Amino acid sequence: MCVRAAGIGPGDLVITTPFSFVASSNALLFEGAIPVFVDIDPKTGNIDPELVADAAKNIEKYLPRKSKIENRKLKAILPVDVFGQPADMDAINAVAKEHGLAVIEDSCEALGATYKGKQAGTLGDFGVFAFYPNKQITTGEGGVIITNDDKAAHFMRALRNQGRAPGDTWLQHTHLGYNYRIDEMSAAMGASQMSRLDEILSKREQVAAWYEARLSDVAGVEIPFIESFTTRTSWFVYVIRFDKKINRDEMAKKLEARGIPVRPYFLPIHLQPYMVEKFGGREGDFPVTEDLGKRGLAIPFSGVMTEEQVDLVCNIIREEVMKS
After folding, report:
1. Which CATH class for the 198-323 domain?
2. Which of 37, 70, 137, 147 is 20 to 30 A from 111, comparing alpha carbons?
3. How many CB atoms lie under 10 A from the CB of residue 188?
4. Got the DSSP string for 102-138?
């Protein structure tokens, strides 16, 4: 809905990240737009603002392999706040302002996070949050869009309600819309959880602090890096990275065998089968994204974990790393 509200349509170009869940790129593809990937910061995993700036000036260098520049217009930037840490939005907004681009901030993993004291999701033209069961709060499914653009807000309210614009009757539809309405019971659950958001985030911060204290000195393990401009991380997941000498997938199997559930995060979007088929993505296109995709592993994490559980996870990781 944000993509449509920003006037992005078939053939339009949007600078975004290949290190994300596929939904951030799919939202563009569903409207016929083309995601133009740039690589990421190796410390945070967030989109690299210097590459965003270069792409905005030299977009032809960054076009997908099976794409051509004819009659294509760069319309927007879609950064993703990876793992609960905001992207460098001041730098991104500066590029957007220089080139007249919209900014759609995907803050689905960063509810409650702050960037230089400002709430994630409020820093672009549009901000999007998701309430899937693995998020900081959940409504089962669904999400929220925020914007200070009244015209866009009215349009998106119509889109989510089968295209009914203000003043339409039940059987009138001004726009081609969707059934994107959250049900009342789910909304009530979400509203109740929102009242506890600070408490929920504080508990997640405590678990993250326990992990940091126990894993920071484990040779071969890299803990999450928090930028100085991040004034609060909302800790969607806790992703560690293994040294290149350690086979991440083999390590995952060993941890699973000892009762520690883990999961790789993320698989690069440009190497997903449908993206390879559509745009010709190849290994080596985005080396930082691919490197982090090969080395990252999400370990057990939630606000209800106990210190004893964190101890157990960390002790097993330490033991297995020492063996490798």
Report:
1. alpha beta
2. 37
3. 12
4. EEEEE-TT-TT-EETTEETTSSSSEEEEE--TTSSS-
